[in-house]
Specification:
little secondary structure
């Protein structure tokens, strides 16, 4: 995933979330707020999942009048079915993302639906090919995110990912359009958003990544360390965020983006579940959340589990913007995830950790 706007491989994904909060998540890779995907070629499609201006009421992902919503984006789709949604993570780094939403609105993700389940990217929540899974975002502004299957408002956002496969993706957000698209994950607690693990709405919107209800998508993890964010690492399985996609405890965060179950992180105990919320591409590895050299990747992250709260999340984002995050997805799988597995399995068996260079 070299990055869809020509950021070099070594600078790829400088950070999906390291944008100042006042930037209102213009998008994960700094495309000017008024720019649009209108003239972006297929190879530059999928600028990102969340480039929705803070004050826009989910006009659409390309910031054009809602009457033209998706129109220009639709024009991008002149590719064969078998190339649509090939996979968000399983493509070589030089491949285009194609994107999560570049399917004509009127087709309602029919192309995605028809892609056999054995194809890469069975979609983010493994909904059977015959289910709707309209997609995570491209619902026209005027439909006010009523949701893809007409579920009533009070059932809004039963959660972003933990929807039974027969449910056809109840909907991503389903809040009135005047709500200014609070965004994919930061729905105020007064909204229904039972949240990922059925925590009552009275709780501070623990949601996918525990963003305070008063924050407006500061970004996926830029929460002050003293905020609710118990942290993405030290949350027991009885606590919120067993993991963002409700994988059974014993599977402990196989991960947000379709890493095969038999792949990395299968052996992470449920008490260490949700090592991170960030998507770990199948062939990449969680370099780490705090810029640790790759050979020590995750080692120190795991150690964070035993330190005081005020030192946890030493900063996934407080680092100066010029420090690259090493990019969460830019290290070969064999260089880190394997180490992580050994660290955790050794830890679980009370065995001393021995670094592996597999």
């Amino acid at each position: 995933m070299i990055n869809v706007i020509n950021i070099s491989h070594h600078e790829a994904m400088i950070n999906l979330i390291n944008i100042p909060q006042h930037e209102a998540m213009i998008n994960a890779i700094n495309i000017p707020q008024h720019e649009a995907m209108i003239n972006i070629s297929l190879h530059e499609a999928m600028i990102n999942l969340i480039n929705i201006p803070q004050h826009e009421a989910m006009i659409n992902l390309i910031n054009i009048p809602h009457y033209e919503a998706m129109i220009k984006l639709i024009n991008l789709i002149d590719i064969p079915l078998n190339e649509i949604m090939i996979n968000l993570i399983n493509k070589p780094l030089h491949e285009p993302m194609i994107n999560l939403i570049n399917i004509p609105l009127h087709m309602t993700m029919i192309n995605l639906i028809y892609i056999p389940l054995h194809e890469p990217m069975n979609n983010l929540i493994n909904i059977p090919q015959h289910e709707a899974m309209i997609n995570l975002i491209n619902i026209p502004h005027h439909e006010a995110m009523i949701n893809v299957i007409n579920v009533s408002h009070h059932e809004a956002m039963i959660n972003l990912i933990n929807i039974p496969q027969h449910e056809a993706m109840i909907n991503v957000i389903n809040i009135p359009n005047h709500e200014a698209m609070i965004n994919l994950i930061n729905i105020p607690q007064h909204e229904v958003m039972i949240n990922v693990i059925n925590i009552s709405h009275h709780e501070a919107m623990i949601n996918l990544i525990n963003i305070p209800q008063h924050e407006v998508m500061i970004n996926v993890i830029n929460i002050p360390q003293h905020e609710a964010m118990i942290n993405l690492i030290n949350i027991s399985h009885h606590e919120a965020m067993i993991n963002a996609i409700n994988i059974p405890n014993h599977e402990a965060m196989i991960n947000m983006i379709n890493i095969p179950q038999h792949e990395a992180m299968i052996n992470i105990s449920h008490h260490e579940a949700m090592i991170n919320l960030i998507n770990i591409p199948q062939h990449e590895a969680m370099i780490n959340l705090i810029n640790i050299p790759n050979y020590e990747a995750m080692i120190k992250l795991i150690n964070l589990i035993d330190i005081p709260l005020n030192e946890i999340m030493i900063n996934l984002i407080n680092k100066p913007l010029h420090e690259p995050m090493i990019n969460l997805i830019n290290i070969p799988l064999h260089m880190t995830m394997i180490n992580l597995i050994y660290i955790l399995t050794s830890r679980a068996n009370d065995q001393p950790y021995q670094h592996t260079t597999a």
